[in-house]
Every structure is written in C-alpha cells, then in structure tokens.
Amino acid sequence: MAKSQALESNMDVDYVLTYRFAKTDKATAAAKFERLVEALASVGLDTEVRNGDNHSVLLFVRVASDEHLFGEVYRSRVNDWIHGVRAAAPQKETRESLEAEPLYEAERLRIIYQLITHPKSEGGAGITPKEGEWEEVEAVFALHDHDYNKDWIKKWTSQYILKTEDLDEIRNRLGEKVAFYFAFTQSYFTFLIFPAAFGLSSWLLLGHFSPIYGFVSAIWCTVFTEWWKHQEVELGVRWGVRGVSKMETKRRDFKHEKEITDPITGEKVLMFPSTKRLQRQLLQVPFAIGAAVMLGALIATCFGIEVFISEVYNGPFKSILVFLPTGIATVFMPILTSIFTDFATRLTKYENYETHGAYETALTQKIFVMNTITSYLPIFLTAFVYVPFGTVIVPYLDVFSLTVKPFAEDEKQMQTSHAGFSINPGRLRKQVIYFTVTAQIVNLGMELIVPYLKRQGFAKYKEMQSERAAKNGGAPASPTTSDPPEDAAFLQRVRKEAELGVYDVTTDLREMVLQFGYLSLFSVVWPLTAVSFIINDWLELRADAIKICVEMQRPIPWRADTIGPWLDSLSFLTWLGSLTTSALVYMFSNDGLGPSGHPKNLTGWALLLTVLLSEHIFFLARWGIRVGISKLASPGLEKERRERYLVRKQYFEENLSQMQRIPKMADKGVEISRESLEEDARRSSLKTSSPEERFWERQRGWRETVQVGRSLIERAEGGNSTEGKKDL
Amino acid sequence: MAKSQALESNMDVDYVLTYRFAKTDKATAAAKFERLVEALASVGLDTEVRNGDNHSVLLFVRVASDEHLFGEVYRSRVNDWIHGVRAAAPQKETRESLEAEPLYEAERLRIIYQLITHPKSEGGAGITPKEGEWEEVEAVFALHDHDYNKDWIKKWTSQYILKTEDLDEIRNRLGEKVAFYFAFTQSYFTFLIFPAAFGLSSWLLLGHFSPIYGFVSAIWCTVFTEWWKHQEVELGVRWGVRGVSKMETKRRDFKHEKEITDPITGEKVLMFPSTKRLQRQLLQVPFAIGAAVMLGALIATCFGIEVFISEVYNGPFKSILVFLPTGIATVFMPILTSIFTDFATRLTKYENYETHGAYETALTQKIFVMNTITSYLPIFLTAFVYVPFGTVIVPYLDVFSLTVKPFAEDEKQMQTSHAGFSINPGRLRKQVIYFTVTAQIVNLGMELIVPYLKRQGFAKYKEMQSERAAKNGGAPASPTTSDPPEDAAFLQRVRKEAELGVYDVTTDLREMVLQFGYLSLFSVVWPLTAVSFIINDWLELRADAIKICVEMQRPIPWRADTIGPWLDSLSFLTWLGSLTTSALVYMFSNDGLGPSGHPKNLTGWALLLTVLLSEHIFFLARWGIRVGISKLASPGLEKERRERYLVRKQYFEENLSQMQRIPKMADKGVEISRESLEEDARRSSLKTSSPEERFWERQRGWRETVQVGRSLIERAEGGNSTEGKKDL
Q: What are the residues whose beta carbons fall under 8 Å from the beta carbon of A551, sequence distance 6 or more?
C-alpha cells in the first residue's frame, strides 16, 4: 500500500483510543484492557488493536453496523426535540428520518464519541479518558481527513474573504463549537475593515487622541458586539443548534451533600446547598485580589525598572539593560499565570458546580480576570499612573537601582538629573504599538513555530534514543517492526497523530477577545491599531486552520450555539472602552499634554465627569444600537418561528379533529301561533320549576328571542308600552 | 320572589348584552338585533331578551349545554398547551380532563366572553361591542356574585394582612389580571412596613435629607422592584398563566399594506413595513416634547403664581389668593391631560401595531410620560429650580402681578421687598407632604365618593324625570312596568349594573406606580412618606375591592402573567430615584442650605459627580440584588421545571419504546485454536478484499481483540517484540 494512499484512507476507523500502561502492572493492565474492549463492544462498536508507542497500544473503534448508528442518531435527535433544539420530533422510521435530514460528519463523530464516553445509564460505554477507572485511556481521538484538510488550507490561503458556505463546511467537519470560533473571527475580521480605514484616515488627518476617532471607535465596538449577538442567533438556527447550550450535562465530579427524593417526579435528586456554594464563591474575592496584587506587583515592578533604566539610568549597557524587565516578565509571568490558573481551576472545582456549562462559565470568568490584568495593566499604568503622577513617582524609583548596580560606573548614573524629571510623552504610544503589533506577531509565531520545533525535537530525540538502543545491542524499541507491512504506513500516521496535542478552541477565542480589548480600550492612542489587527487576523484565521490540521489531533466535534462567556467579556470590554477612551481623550487631548498644554492641569473631578458622561452616552448609544439591530430582518428567527408554527398547527389540528364539534344550533324557534299560546298556558302551570328555569323558559329558541326583541324595539318610542305585556 | 333572593341568584345568566338603539331607526335596529341573536345562538348560546332602560333591551346569554362549554374549554386548553402555557396537552377525553383540573369561574367566564367576541374564523360569534357592525351593542358584562362580594368585603375589612389564598380567590373570581393588581398592591403594602418603620426612626433621629435614609430607601426600592419580578414568575406558575402575555392577539384595527403569502407555511400574512412604523413612532418625539412643554408651562405658571403670591405679594386676601394657582391647575390640568391622552391614543393607533400587547405597551409608555410630568414636575421645580435659582428668578415673577392686581392696594405689595428675597426652605417639604398625604387622601376620596354621588344624582334625575312624565299624563317611561312580577327585582338589579362603569385595572395600577415614584424620588425630603402610604394603601386595597363590587360592572376576567409595561416604569422610577435622592441629599444636606451652609455654594460639577457616582452605586447594588434574588428558592419555577421534565420523560419513553434497541453484542469472539489458524489461512486468501476490510478482519470479535491486546501488553517490556508477530 503506497504511502499516499495511507494518508488518504482512514481505514473506516471512527475513533482511536490510546491505551498506555507504563505505570500499571501488566496483569492489571491486561485485565483493564479486557474490560475496556468489552465495554466498547457492548455498545455496538467493532474493535481492532495494534501496537502503539512504548508501553501503549492503539485501540481502533468503529460502529459495528449502520443500524446501531441510526438508532443512536434517532435517540440523539429525539433528545434534541425534547429539549427544544428541534421544532418537530424526528420521523419515527429512522431510515426515513435520516433520508429527510442526512447525517453530517461532525454529527456522526459526536454521536459515536458520546457512545464511547457517556455513562452506562445513558446508553454509553462510560469510558472517561484519563479519569478514575479509565486512567490508562490516554486519549480518544478521530483521525484527520487529510484530503479535506489539504483542500481546506489550499482554499483558504487563496481566498480573501470567507463565505458562509466555508463556515458551513467547517461545521460539517469539525462541529459547531469550532465553527463558531471561525465565524466569530471572520465576522470580527470583516468588521475591522471599517475601523482600519477610518483609523488610517484619522491617523493622517486627526492625529492621536482625537475625540472623533474615540467616539466612532466606541460606537463601532458596540455595533460589533451587538451585531454578533444577532449573528449568533442566525448561525444557531442555520446550523440547527439553537438552545443547545441550555441542554445541561451533569458534571461527573459534582459532589452532592444530600439526596432528596423529588416528591413529584419520584426521582432521586442530588443536592448541594446553594448557600454553601455561595460561601465558596466568596473565595473568588480574595482570589481576584490576590491575583491582581501579585500580577500587578510583578507588572508594576517590571514597569518601574523599565522606567528607571530608560529614563533615569544613564550608565553603560543602557540599551541592553532596557530589556531586563521584559526578561523578568517573560520568565515570571508564565510561572505566576500558571500558578493562578491552577488555583482558579481548583477553586472552580471546589465551588462544585452541577453542570459543565456552569463550571466552564465560572472558570472562564476567573481566567478572564487574570488575562485582563496581564494584558491591559501595563498600558493602564502608563496612562493613568506614569503620565499624571510620573514626576512624583519617578524619583522614588531609585529602589530599582539595585538591578543596574553591577553595571553602573558611579552613583550619579542612577539618580534623577537635577534638572528635574519630565515624563516621556511617547511612552504610551510605543507601548500600545508594542502590544498591538509586536506582541501579536510574536504570538502568532509562537502558535505556529513553537509546536513545530517541539515536534521536530521530539522526533529527533526518539530517533537518537532508538539509535542508542540499537548501538547497545538491544532490539529496536520501535513498535513499527511488529506492524503488518500493508498497514505500516497507516499505523505510522496514526502514531504520529496520537502524539499531537488536543485543540482547545477557548484559547483561540480568548486571544481574539483580548485583541478586541486593545482596540476598544486603547486604539485612540494609536488609530492604526485596527490596520495592524486586520493583517494579523487574516493570517490568524489561516494559521488556526493549519494548526488544527497539522499540529493538533482532530477536535471532537462539540456543538455550541454561542461563543459562551466570552460574549460577556466582549460587552465588558466595550463598556470599559467607553471609560478609557474618554479618559485618554481628556487627558491627552493636546497630544499628550493635557487640555491646557500641561498634564499637571488635569483635575480629578473633570476627568471623572468626562468619564461618567461618556459612559452615559455609551449606554444611550448601546440602547439605540440594540433597538436598531433588533429591527434587522432575521431570516433565521423567521425560519424558526415558521417551523414552530407549522408544528403547532399540525398538533392543533390533530388534537382538535378528535374533539366533538359544537353541533349547529337546533332551530328551536317556534312561530307564535295558537299552539304556542297553548304552550304558554301549559308553561304557566309548571310553577313548580325553579325561578332560573322559569326565567330561561320564557323564550324558547333564538327565533322567539328575536320576535320578542323586535316587539320591544318597536314599542320603545311613543309610550304604548302597556300593549303586549302578556307575551313577555 | 323576595328581593333578597333576587340579589343572590344570577338566574344562571353568564353574560348580559346591552343593546341600545336610540340612534338607529327601528327597522335597522330590529334587523341587527336578529343578526345578533342568531350569531350568539350559532355558537351554542341560549338567549332571553328583556326590556332595558330607555331605548335599550337587555339580552341575557348562557351556554346552552355543558357539552358546548366543555368543548370550548378543551379548545382553549389545547391552545394554551401549544403556546407553551401548559406543560402537557390536556387529556383527550374532555370530561376526564375537566375532572382532573376543574374549571374555575374566571376561566368559565373568560371562555364564554371569547366565544361571544372572538371573530368567526376563530370559532366565536364575532360580536365587537361598540365597534363597526355591532355599534348598538353597548356593553357585554357578567353579573356580580353578590354573595361572594359581601363575603369578600366583610373578610377584607376585618383582616390586616391578605394571604395568598385571598389572592387565589380573586383570581378564581375576577381573573388573573385583576388578581395581579391586588397581588402587586399587597406586596407593595407588605414591603412598605420596613421603610415606614425606618422612615419614622430616621425622621426622629436623623432628620431630613439624611444620606443614610436616602441610601436605605434607594436599596429598598430596588429590592422591591427586583423581588416583584421574582414574585410575578411565582404567581404566574401558581395560577398557570406563565407565558400568557406572549400569546398575541391580533388587533382588529391593524391595517396592512401588503399581503404576503408565506413561502413555507403557505398562509397569507398581512404586513405593515416596520420602517414606516418607525417613521410614525418618531412622532413620539414631538409628542413628548409638546406634552412636556405644555404641561410644564401650565405647572410652571401655577408654580410661579403660587411663589409670587406666597412669597412676594403682601396685600389683602393673601390667604385666599394662595389657592388661586391650585384652582387654575385643577381646572386646566384635566383638560390638557385629556387632550394629550386623546392625542396619545390617536398616535398609538396611527402607529398601527399588529397585536394588542404591542398597542397597550406603546400607549402605556406615552401615558406614563405624561403622568411623570404632571406628578413629579412641581416638586422638581421646587427642588432644582426654585431652591438653587430662586433668588435670581423670583424678582422676575412680577409678570404674575396681573393675577392679584384687582386685589392689591398699591404697587408695593406686588414687588419684592428691598431687603432682598430669600428662599423658603420649608416649601419643598410642604410640597412633598401635600403630594404624599393630602393628594393621596383626596384621590382615595374621589375614587369612592364621586362615583357614589354621581350614581345618587343620576338616580334622583331619573326619578324626577319619571315623576314629570307622570304629571304630564304620559305613561311612565320606566321599563319596569313591563317586567314579569317574579323577575322584577332581578331585572331591576341587572338594569342598575348595566349603568355602572367598566373597571379598568390599569388606572389603579398606574396610581400605585406613581405613588411608588414619590417614595423613590422624594421620600428623602420627608421620611414619613412611607408611613402615610402604608395607611393609604391599606384603605386603597379595601376601597378598590368595594369599588369593583359596588361601583363597577363585574370585570371581564382577563388573564395576565405580569403587571405589564408598568414593571418598566417601576424600574425607571427606581433608577431616577437614585439620581434625585443623591442630588437632594447633596443640595440640602445641611437641612436645606447646601453643604456649606448656604445654597449658593452649590457647584454644578460636584452635584453632577454626586449624582453620577450614586447612579453607579445603584447599578452595582441592583446587580447584587438581582444575583441575590435569582438565588432565592423559587418553588414555582421548580414546579414548572418538574412538570416539563415529566412531560418530556413521558414523550421520550413513548418515542424510544418504538425504536429498535441495539441488540446485545453477538459473541463473535472465537478461541484461538487450530480452527482459527485455519481460518487465518482462509483469510489470507481473501486478498481481493479492500485494505479497509482486511484491516478490520484481523481480529474477529472483541474477545480476539482482548487476546491480541493482552499479548501486546505482555511483550511490551523486555524487547521480545519479534515473537508472535504472525498472529497480528
């Protein structure tokens, strides 16, 4: 079998499980392996085992028969319908239902993944990779579709703008969650065109800190945020996933305190008192303060050292020493961040949420707080501490003279010059440019190059290891020797994919949201920000596609109907932007020197007033934009409404057809004639009946009512009301 | 039949229609009457006609048979289910369904009312009182249940606090819309206990304009508003009406511009372009400005005259003349208000809303704007114009000297004294007391006494009229002479009820919301406000009950799941309260004389800053309160959730039971034995099969996978990986 073919065919494999038994003794490993295979077989999966890398085997899995799969698909669709994701119940004949609405690849893979991982009580095999009983199952992953990947990358790199169909294709292959990320980035990219153009002209014509640019930029950020909310709904309907985020999956780690038997449903409900959770959530306050203080201290220290070296220090190696704080930050920031991320994860676990959704939201919020501090604090320090208070603070930066002591030639080089210190007005702009250009490029590079180098190094290392083993006379440790020759190429490919990382879409989303933050918060400092971002994001979209195809295992195609808690972050950043932009405009309106030519003339109350008024304008504008966007035609919602209407109508008709309809009124009216008068006589003899009966018996049938009514109407005028009294 | 009995029995009458033909010629009136009776009979209603007051007849209506009614009830319940108001579809056997969930009186009356008024296409008789074809149908009303009314009033007047069961009783009798008003007023009343107690102690200990009182009061207002939102949901679930407000009823007056055939549903949809509506809605801006200017001018004029007379004028009749502006306001305010209300109604009609809900909301908003101006502007003028700018403005009030010229003895009496004018710090408090005590009492009196006097006067007038007619020798015009003696008392009662007004719950709701506004906006001026309100509201709740029972026709029992747009007004007033309270505290913190002992020292920016900061504290507090209240246990939502769960579960089980389940895996595994080796040989001959087939055929069944896996695991360590290669 030629290598090119091996790349093309996935051998009908749906999923590969890596079973690693390095830390388990062989007997247990073998017994557990048996349980694993049995569990998979019990839910209708075919299995094949092959040798893996050292101390691991690869377990290949596919659905045994189409009937099994169709059953699961039907189950999943019925479940969707019950949770309101679908308007109508799927047809009862599975095959017909599938013909009406064919299975797409992501759906298929998701359903099989759920079959493997769902607990037994929900009809799955209950395999939980890396957890509990299944610690040895290192990974469950699908194989890349190399043909499609090649096409995808080729198409994207030769195309400027992505169409909705391109996003549909991603959704069909990689699932809605990943597709939502690409849709968001694509929308953001398209929206960036305007601020890039406006920013460029404003940079040329209006200069920095232009209030006009600030206002337009704030409005644009709001429009984008609100429009994306609208777009999320549209995409959700288009992809048939609206409401999916409300289908809550229980967390396995949830620890209950009480078990209550629900009096109505009779089910056992696991409870965790919400007051207790609230108490635990209160720990977020010290956590946030701690993170803010520690990260803030690190950033402030680096900032202080940097200011000291660049503005005060006057000795040798200045041009090199200036990178010292960056070095400190590069070393310590990741350490601190990972400590706090770990802490945040523990804290969120301790908060003991019942559902995955709640857990994710709580974790994202904590991480967002940390990211906000690390991303924006440096610029905040420059804008709101260094500039207004620089002349006061800088002389105290002598404490950082320690850092340069070994290099300084005399004490004078480390003291503020007697002529007095004056702040460097270009610092803020330089910093913004650093964060919006340099840092973005570095980031993009890191994302693509570092994993590549890592993989190359790892391959090299393994090669060397096996060479050494060969030299030492041992049999080569490589598992490839035991491969059947015809599968060798395929298995080699699978082993490589098994070594790849797991793609986490939230990291990429976070990156985009943080980038949006720079635009919203600080672009008034340097209006070209959006120009830099638009170039960066064009590359980013493609780089992410390549990353998914080459650097990562094929992602599990989860569903989503939103970008989740990041949407709140977006709103938050837009709001914060209305504050910072107005503050910056006020403070630097005379190109960095305050409204009256000198930053000293800033008054606190005027700044506060500017900020608060601008915030109110923002609230007003946001309300207007929301109203405007809600009036936009929404074909998605229209479609949903119509579908639901049709379903309702059908139910209604089905139900009412079985109901007895009101029979057409019996024509009970009788002409007033001799007979009816006789009847009157008979009636008056029936005095034994109740007053109610007598009241209603005076006029039999509607025709009599009409006749009596007519006579009443005719006699109304003229006072001849004594006539005809009897026939009432 | 004794009179007491006549009061008790409603003769099984469900509704009474007043058919007045004074303005129609007799032939047309008779023909229309026939059509009316026929239409009613065609939907299964029994009819009886009796003479009414001059130029009218009373048409009594009841459901002909229980089967008719049950059919309609079932229809209505299925419709509820389809719109998501009910979790489960009602049972198909109507009788069973009714036994499981008995009909309550309000439901019965509502369904019959809908039977009378719904268009023919929806299965009703299409009677539209006072409109179009049915102009002669003056009113459709149900008869009071005098027994229940007597009990109700007796119970309420002897009870301090109303229980939820009392509200349930109202809901069962008068429908959810009226019940929601009583529930709201009752909740508000209960919540008032705290600010009344706190206000009293703060009045004794802290004095006026206490920042502590202001803060607590603002928090309380927010808690109440947010808590009521929570309570609405609870009551909605309790009364089974949650989601009812989303069931939109089309407006008959809606004029479409286009008729589009929906491509999916195939239904004809009447369209009115929303851009055109938006253009028409823009007329609200001149309307609001016009109303504000005109009403504001009237109020400002009265205010100016009042200030002039009380503070400048020094001549005779001062004590009487001081009431002149009140007189002007009393005469012109109702005229202006009714003109603008009429205008608002026309404007809302012109805006051409498709549904009743949208129409009501738009109208309520306009009326709320007007009410806000008339209710709060006088106090605003005092607080924010008179006090800070009084010394500047008052000398110019000479223009109002015209009003007192006839009474003044010399010019001096109408000029500001030379010693200079000083503002009257007690004016603001007096005004607040006037609006929160005097005006409330007057209002309550007007509600009860004026209609009583009106009825008495009308009865007297009719008596006189018939006396005069008798004197003139004509036959008495009274219709009672044609009554059958046994029904006479009953008919007399019905004629009286026909003359009563129609109860409009929104008027009462508006009154409460406006009262809440005084508390939220100005209670910091006079902390006893809540004490006055608590007394007033205890009476108000009872007075409203009496009003409904005695002064008004029995209300049509509409459903509702909210107090509607007034909820937004409540939120608005709470927000505005956070601004006014802080402004008042800042301006009058030294008991009416500004922070530095003199109102002149007020600075605009400090005031603005106070207000804006306090607003932010309010936003923060509101967010906290919302989070807190959302954590409250919600038995209603719990119940709803459970019900929906049960329904889902049932559907799920019904659907999946029909699905073919995955058969337990066939035990395809074969022991590795001689036979299997032979099989291997056979297999290798099958080289014609595809690589995929060959890949999956290496291990037949899960047992073989396990065996191969075991051997792979065992051979992993030690490098003896060359063994057993063949059986892979």
A: A448, A451, A452, A455, A500, A501
pLDDT for residue B540 is more than 80: yes
- Look at residue B534 and tell me whether its pLDDT is greater than 90: yes
B477 touches chain A (CB under 8 A): yes
Between CA B53 and CA B57, with CA B54 as vertex, the angle to 5 degrees is 55
CA distance A614 to A603: 17
Inform me whether the C-beta atom of residue B454 falls under 8 Å from chain A C-beta atoms.
no
**Rounded (10°) CA dihedral B384, B388, B390, B393:** -80
Measured from the Cβ of residue A308, the count of other Cβ atoms closer than 10 Å reads: 23
CA B643 to chain CA mean position, Å: 27
Which residues, 6+ apart, have CB-to-CB distance to B17 below 8 Å? Answer: B36, B58, B59, B61, B116, B127, B129, B137, B139, B140
Handedness of CA A585, A590, A593, A598 (dihedral sign): negative
Residues A105-152: tens digit of each pLDDT: 899 999 999 999 888 887 888 888 888 888 888 889 999 988 888 888
| pLDDT band at residue B662 using 50, 70 and 90 as cut-offs | very low
DSSP state of A91: P
- ipTM of the predicted structure? 0.74
Residue A527 main-chain phi, psi, to 5 deg: -65, -10
Q: Give the distance between the most distant pair of CA atoms in chain A.
A: 136
Q: Would you state the structure tokens that stand for residue A179, as one six-digit string?
A: 């597709």
**B643 at the A interface (CB within 8 A)?**
yes
Answer whether A74's CB lies under 8 Å from A95's CB. no
| d(C-alpha A240, C-alpha A242), whole Å | 6
Residue in B613, B659, B713 nearest the CB of A71: B659
CA dist., res. A366 & res. A344, Å (int): 6
CA distance A182 to A167: 7
- Nearest CA distance, B76 vs chain A (angstrom): 11
H runs (alpha helix) in A476-603: 488-499, 505-522, 529-546, 566-588
Burial class of residue B49 in the structure, from the number of CB atoms within 10 Å of its CB (0-12 exposed, 13-18 middle, 19+ buried): buried
Q: How far apart are CA B446 and CA A103, in angstroms?
A: 70
Measure in Å the smallest separation between the Cα of A273 and chain B Cα atoms.
11
Measured CA to CA, the distance from residue B262 to residue B264 in angstroms comes to 6
Q: How far apart are CA B682 and CA B468, in angstroms?
A: 122
DSSP string, B57-69: EEEEEEES-HHHH
- Per-residue pLDDT tens over the stretch B260-301: 776 666 667 777 887 888 888 888 889 989 988 988 888 888
Residue B27: pLDDT band by 50, 70, 90 thresholds? confident
How large is the average pLDDT for residues B423-434? 82
Place of tokens 């403070």: A587
Whether B146 and chain A come into contact, CB under 8 Å, resolves to no
Q: pTM of the full predicted structure?
A: 0.81
Q: How many helices (H) and strands (E) does chain A have?
A: 27, 6
What residue type is assigned to position A533 of the chain?
F
Tell which residue, A152, A116, A171, A68, has the closest CA to residue A558.
A171
Higher pLDDT: A453 or A90? It is: A453
User: Which among A263-267, B94-98, B708-712 has the top mean pLDDT?
Assistant: B708-712
Residues in B closer than 8 angstroms to A609, CB to CB, are 605, 608-609, 612
**CA B206 to each of CA A682, B211, B587: distance values in angstroms, whole numbers, following the listed order:** 83, 9, 16
pLDDT of A311 > 80? The answer is no
Q: Is the pLDDT of residue A2 over 50?
A: no
Structure tokens at A654: 């089905």
> B218 exposed, middle or buried (CB, 10 Å; 0-12, 13-18, 19+)?
buried
In this prediction, residues B540-553 reach a mean pLDDT of 89
